[in-house]
């Protein structure tokens, strides 16, 4: 839940970065359901800045393009956010690797599951207390589908052959408590995989926000006749954004 809040905050932060300077956010005037943000005179003007260079710098390191354009506050915030996301990615990956080793060692010690089996076998051990229980359920499923419903003995035999496990891949949990603890370890690993995906998503979003913002701001520095429009999109039940440069 804390990681979801982190991503939500990143999204809010991105909207603020795109539509307003920190400490100098300007609200547009609503006229005929159209919200206009006048971008002329917005922020400090230095002129002569390359939008392409700012975009490339921001794509590599969020905030670098803002630093190039003289937006030091934005640059610091975006770089800090990226460092936090990178640290989170490292930490979550480390947790995933540790939990993976933990459940494999635990399965070997308490269920007799040999080391080096495929991930599919570990997944089956997560769902079935023993390989015998798995085989019983699999044969029952194949019988109901291929013999009773489809009346196809050949497909039944093929399904049994394909889904049967070799004796060396068998397992049997000594106690129910071990079985549930194994499942708990794997659930924890799954949660950290989700958190890691959030961290990767935050890094991508941060780069996207930084890239778009740097291009918009660079164009503002080089052209005072720029405006950003927002208006309701009733068909899609949202807002439509328009960036206009008058020559």
N-to-C span: 48 Å
Oligomeric category: single chain
Give the count of helical stretches: 8
Order of helices and strands: HEEHHHHHHHEE
Briefly note the structural class of the backbone.
Answer: alpha+beta
Q: Major beta sheet, specifics?
A: 4 strands, antiparallel
Large-scale geometry = elongated
Q: Can you describe what's shown?
A:
The protein has 247 residues and is α+β, with helices and mostly antiparallel strands. The protein has one domain. It has helices at residues 2-19, 51-60, 64-68, 72-111, 119-127, 131-149, 153-163, 176-222, and strands at 29-31, 34-38, 226-233, 238-245. It has a 4-stranded antiparallel β-sheet, with no helix packed on it. A hairpin with a 2-residue loop joins strand 1 (29-31) and strand 2 (34-38). Helix 1 packs parallel to helix 8, helix 2 (51-60) packs antiparallel against helix 8 and helix 6 packs antiparallel against helix 7.
What is the topology?
Elements: H1 2-19, E1 29-31, E2 34-38, H2 51-60, H3 64-68, H4 72-111, H5 119-127, H6 131-149, H7 153-163, H8 176-222, E3 226-233, E4 238-245
Antiparallel strand pairs: 1-2, 2-3, 3-4
Helix pairs in contact: 1-8, 2-8, 4-8, 6-7
Please summarize what this structure is.
By secondary structure, the protein is α+β, with helices and mostly antiparallel strands.
Task: Name the features.
alpha+beta; 64% helix; 247 residues; 4 strands
């Amino acid at each position: 839940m804390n990681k979801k809040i982190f991503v939500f905050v990143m999204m809010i932060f991105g909207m603020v970065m795109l539509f307003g300077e920190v400490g100098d956010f300007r609200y547009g005037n609503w006229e005929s359901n159209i919200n206009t943000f006048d971008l002329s005179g917005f922020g400090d003007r230095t002129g002569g800045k390359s939008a392409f260079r700012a975009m490339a710098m921001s794509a590599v390191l969020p905030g670098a393009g803002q630093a190039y354009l003289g937006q030091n506050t934005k640059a610091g915030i975006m770089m800090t956010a990226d460092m936090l996301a990178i640290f989170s990615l490292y930490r979550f990956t480390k947790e995933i690797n540790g939990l993976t080793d933990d459940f494999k060692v635990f399965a070997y010690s308490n269920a007799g599951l040999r080391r080096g089996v495929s991930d599919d076998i570990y997944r089956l051990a997560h769902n079935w207390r023993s390989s015998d229980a798995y085989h019983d359920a699999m044969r029952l499923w194949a019988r109901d589908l291929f013999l009773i419903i489809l009346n196809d003995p050949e497909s039944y035999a093929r399904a049994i052959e394909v889904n049967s496990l070799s004796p060396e891949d068998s397992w049997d949990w000594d106690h129910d408590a071990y079985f549930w603890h194994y499942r708990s370890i794997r659930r924890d690993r799954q949660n950290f995989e989700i958190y890691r995906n959030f961290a990767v998503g935050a890094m991508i979003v941060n780069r996207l926000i930084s890239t778009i913002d740097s291009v918009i701001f660079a164009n503002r520095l080089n052209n005072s006749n720029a405006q950003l429009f927002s208006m309701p999109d009733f068909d899609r039940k949202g807002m439509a954004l328009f960036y206009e440069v008058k020559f």
